[in-house]
Prior knowledge:
The chain is an alpha+beta fold. The protein contains two helices and eleven strands, in the order H-E-E-H-E-E-E-E-E-E-E-E-E.
Amino acid sequence: MVRVQLTEQGEQALAHLSALHRDELRRLDTALTPPTWDGELANGTPTPRAATSGHPSPQKKADMLKSSLTALARQQLALAKAASSGRSASTVFGGHENIMRQTVIALTAGQRLSEHENPGEATVHVLQGRVRLGSAGEVWEGSPGDLLIVPDRRHDLEALEDAVVLLTVAKRT
């Protein structure tokens, strides 16, 4: 493994690229947002506020989106390495208002997510590196491609080496 220490100029360039990527994700999110409706035509058909190229047809909401977890993992790990906390995360699907949420989490070697409660059914898919999931005195180690089922109790996650995982959580209703 090769570690690279960025100069201040390199860190600024990385921060600029990260901001550009964030702006691009926002642009894509806006482009995929279905139109809102002003009202109805005389025949009962809804009328969109504005027609924007790239939107799905007014009758059909965009229901499919492709993301590169490999690229996102690489980006999040670079951000984690640049961060004083040694951590970085990005929600790729869902959010607090949804039942299911998927988050890419990057941790540098030795960093951990301290013990916390399980908010619902959860899995950790190891995308890169090695991690250790611990709970109630038990530990499970995961390597790329492994899927760890998070126990329904307090647990923690430690990066044994620079690592990136996809955390999937389905909240209890």
